[in-house]
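A reminder from the course coordinator: this example appears on the midterm review sheet, so study it carefully.

Given structure:
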């Protein structure tokens, strides 16, 4: 963390890593046991891509921007704090999936667990960021964005 960073948390993508290990095992089985090396190779490459892109997610808040990146940083997003309207901690069922997903209100970025912070943007958009520290992230955002409205609570 730098002197200007208010918050930085890296969440390991356990669910994504378990999926990658399953693909790797399946790929090895296809190469060795099922006599289908092409399918096995495709599965092994997919496991590597899954691990590199979604093996973790890092969320960082500084004095101007909330930013996050997945895996090694190839997939990243920056949101100026002035674009945030409100946020709230939420629970997201595992059936909603992991990785980058579209949902009815916007986009979800999640690598593990069921907890997330739902961000409401000034332009009407929404994002859900998976985190194992939703209350802490919300508190940091409340301190960093004083002009924002109180968090939205669903009934």
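Designed residues:
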């Amino acid at each position: 963390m730098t002197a200007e960073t208010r918050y930085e948390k890296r969440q390991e993508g356990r669910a994504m890593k378990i999926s990658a290990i399953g693909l790797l095992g399946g790929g090895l089985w296809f190469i060795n046991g099922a006599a289908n090396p092409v399918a096995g190779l495709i599965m092994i490459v997919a496991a590597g891509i899954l691990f590199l892109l979604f093996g973790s997610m890092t969320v960082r808040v500084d004095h101007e921007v909330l930013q996050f990146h997945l895996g090694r940083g190839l997939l990243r997003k920056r949101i100026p704090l002035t674009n945030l309207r409100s946020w709230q901690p939420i629970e997201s069922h595992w059936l909603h999936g992991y990785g980058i997903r579209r949902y009815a209100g916007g986009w979800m970025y999640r690598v593990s667990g069921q907890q997330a912070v739902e961000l409401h943007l000034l332009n009407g958009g929404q994002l859900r960021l998976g985190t194992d520290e939703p209350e802490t992230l919300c508190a940091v955002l409340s301190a960093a964005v004083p002009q924002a409205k109180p968090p939205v609570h669903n009934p």
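The first strand starts at residue 7 and ends at 12. Residues 14-53 form one domain.
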